[in-house]
Amino acid sequence: MFRPIRSIALCALLACLAGQLAQATPGNPGFYRMTLGGFDIVALSDGTHPFPVDTVMIDTPKETIAAALAADELALPLQGSINAFLVDTGKKIVLIDTGAGALYGDCCGRLLANLRAAGYRPEQVDEILLTHLHKDHVGGVLQQNQPAFPNAVLRMARADANYWRSASSRRQAPDFLRSFFDSAADALAPYAAAGRLRPFDGEVVLEEGIRSVSAPGHTPGHTAYLVESRGQKLLVWGDIVHVAPVQLLDPQASVKYDSSDGDAQRARRSLFERAAREHLWIAAAHISFPGLGHLGREGGHYRWIPINYETTPARPAAK
Q1: Domain-located, residue 316
Q2: Domain assignment of residue 197, yes or no
Q3: 3-class SS of residue 70
Q4: Distance (Å, rounded) from C-alpha 152 to C-alpha 122?
Q5: Which domain holds residue 112?
Q6: 164 CB-near residues (< 8 Å, 6+ apart)
Q7: Distance of CA 42 to CAs 31, 51, 163, 205, Å?
Q8: The overall pTM is greater than 0.70
Q9: Cα separation, 310 vs 19, whole angstroms
Q10: N or C: which end of the chain has fewer CB within 10 A?
Q11: How many CB atoms are closer than 10 A to CB 162?
């Protein structure tokens, strides 16, 4: 006579568990794979965060920002993506940027989990190329104050390494940037102590199929990376764009984090023109994940053409 009561209790327990599972639904997947010639490219999300577009963008009227966002059916507050990109050449595993790690709080720091989900381990990464040393690009090199990539060599433009580790530059910087100097110095220190910090100068071949492209302005040593395999090219352009709906319409639009507005604008116009002219693949740190696509040109404006999503992209042929 107790079986019905036990059955009711069991049903109630199952219903409760189902409700808890529904509330604990995981977020969207955080990696996306494409092929580039003989290379495997993996976009990795470190997370998204509310991006204060109207206060970060300078010299752009709020009405202009609102209209540009509305044209793409977007509105404030806008979620900003933080993307990084892994390049598997078959000989080396190279990670370009590392996300914010713990520096942006609970929104982010998801890169390592997504790296593993994509089939890679942190200790497999041979080299890390940083576009620049802002928190949301360098923060992920550490995990609990230790190197998150224990075997990787850390590389960036010498101009950025010198600037962000300079006490005099820190003193002269705006107040809101002071903590960026501290986080950059902290991130680089353990790699330098291990002899695995190797800055470079100018535009050089860093690995077979990977070349640096100087694009100063956002920071003094801001650098893009051109990845090429079997005639296909991918430009990993760092922070050339922060708010695509606004800056694709107006490449002059700047953000307060740019160290030189004029240089940042020149770099943006130059890389926009090159990307459209050469039909380059683009890997963008702050365009909605996976941040992979092309640029189309329409008069004096540009438009983002996102990658055509594939569930099972072809893997590179064996070399």
Answers
A1: no
A2: yes
A3: helix
A4: 9
A5: 31-306
A6: 133, 180, 181, 184, 185, 219
A7: 7, 24, 30, 21
A8: yes
A9: 32
A10: N
A11: 13
User: What pLDDT tens digit does each residue of the chain (319 aa) get?
Assistant: 434 444 444 444 444 444 444 344 568 889 999 999 999 999 999 999 999 999 999 989 999 999 999 999 999 999 999 999 999 999 999 999 999 999 999 999 999 999 999 999 999 999 999 999 999 999 999 999 999 999 999 999 999 999 999 999 999 999 999 999 999 999 999 999 999 999 999 999 999 999 999 999 999 999 999 999 999 999 999 999 999 999 999 999 999 999 999 999 999 999 999 999 999 999 999 999 999 999 999 888 999 999 999 988 776 655 4
C-alpha to C-alpha distance for 268 and 229, rounded to whole angstroms: 24
Based on the structure, what is the number of domains in the chain? 1
Q: Are strands 57-58 and 153-155 parallel, antiparallel or unpaired?
A: unpaired
